[in-house]
């Protein structure tokens, strides 16, 4: 099928409907498209993903309601060691991947929801004054996690691996849902809603945003706007899959602004393998001409290094100075 994925200056669209319906040949055809996209662009839109559109809207509304709370109520939930809770405005810097010299803090604030696997040991803290926030965000977490798990066979086949290769390595993942608020601001030099970065994830699922602002950097080095395609998700390869594929699947730099005269919210879901999963070059991703580029590392160790580089409170714990804000 001719796909606009043959171009590398736009973000291609994949329809997951046939594959998820189990149509004969659809898994292989979708995997072939995904393979090409991941090697050339690293970003795609997905349609017919199965996540209810109303739930996507409810979650955007939950993000807006959370960020409208008084600051002291949000600060009472300040980010903890498990990366759960409230990340105050301008307290993260995109440093981890050495992409550029941006040292100014990101012009956003966020709330992180972690998986609740064991009702006897709740890990998330919730705002008392928003009774439905917990239920909506956990329902959304479950829906996007299920979508990521359903997509794993497509990623596996895209890499010529057995369809069930990734499933057991990702079934108790410490994925994370981020609810970000970008207020409308005038950006000065080197200021961003979120500065150029790559994601640390296996893949990121970003529900289509009604307020534009996401840009991705093409392989040619040009920044292009992500279009608004209603009811889709934007999916991108993160650093974990980039390392696992020995660099074959691109972890593409991206950034976001809010240049509209109203608040912008984003609800990315960062999907990770299980913490003990060892990331070392997958079968078929190395040969004599392509020796392993990255030292083997567990997902847990990799994430600890990533977080220490990007979030003030992890650095301050180690006695380093917070960035100027
Ligand atoms: O706001 C967006 O559209 C993208 C956010 C993003 O890239 C991130 O949170 O990692
Ligand atoms: Fe990102």
Automatic annotation (TrEMBL):
Going by the record, the broad EC class of this enzyme is oxidoreductase
Q: Enumerate the transmembrane spans.
A: none
InterPro entries in UniProt: DIOX_N, IPNS-like_FE2OG_OXY, IPNS-like_sf, Iron_ascorbate_oxido_reductase, Oxoglu/Fe-dep_dioxygenase_dom
Name a biological process GO annotation. ethylene biosynthetic process
Task: Recall the GO molecular function terms of this protein's record.
Answer: 2-oxoglutarate oxygenase/decarboxylase (ethylene-forming) activity; metal ion binding
> Catalyzes what?
L-arginine + 2-oxoglutarate + O2 = guanidine + L-glutamate 5-semialdehyde + succinate + CO2; 2-oxoglutarate + O2 + 2 H(+) = ethene + 3 CO2 + H2O
Task: From the Swiss-Prot or TrEMBL record, give the protein name.
Answer: 2-oxoglutarate-dependent ethylene/succinate-forming enzyme
Species whose genome carries this gene: Roseomonas indoligenes
């Amino acid at each position: 099928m001719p796909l606009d994925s043959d171009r590398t200056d736009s973000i291609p669209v994949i329809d997951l409907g046939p594959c998820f319906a189990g149509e004969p040949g659809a898994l292989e055809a979708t995997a072939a498209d995904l393979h090409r996209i991941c090697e050339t662009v690293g970003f795609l839109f997905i349609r017919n993903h199965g996540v209810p559109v109303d739930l996507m809207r409810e979650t955007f509304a939950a993000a807006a309601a959370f960020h409208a709370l008084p600051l002291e109520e949000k600060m009472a939930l300040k980010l903890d060691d498990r990366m759960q809770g409230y990340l105050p405005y301008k307290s993260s810097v995109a440093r981890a991947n050495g992409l550029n010299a941006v040292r100014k803090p990101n012009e956003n604030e966020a709330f992180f929801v972690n998986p609740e696997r064991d009702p006897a040991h709740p890990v998330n803290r919730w705002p008392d004054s928003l009774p439905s926030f917990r239920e909506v965000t956990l329902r959304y977490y479950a829906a996007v996690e299920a979508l990521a798990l359903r997509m794993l066979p497509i990623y596996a086949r895209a890499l010529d691996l057995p369809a069930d290769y990734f499933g057991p390595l990702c079934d108790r993942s410490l994925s994370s849902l981020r609810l970000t608020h970008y207020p409308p601001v005038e950006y000065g030099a080197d200021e961003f809603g979120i500065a150029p970065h790559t994601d640390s994830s296996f893949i990121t699922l970003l529900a289509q945003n009604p307020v534009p602002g996401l840009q991705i950097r093409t392989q040619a080095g040009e920044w292009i706007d992500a279009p608004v395609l209603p009811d889709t998700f934007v999916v991108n390869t993160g650093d974990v899959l980039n390392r696992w594929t020995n660099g074959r699947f691109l972890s593409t730099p991206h950034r976001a602004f809010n240049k509209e005269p109203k608040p912008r919210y984003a609800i990315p879901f960062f999907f990770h393998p299980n913490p003990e999963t060892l990331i070392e070059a997958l079968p078929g991703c190395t040969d004599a001409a392509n020796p392993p580029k990255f030292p083997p590392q567990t997902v847990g160790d990799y994430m600890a290094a990533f977080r220490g580089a990007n979030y003030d409170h992890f650095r301050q714990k180690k006695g380093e100075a917070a960035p100027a804000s």
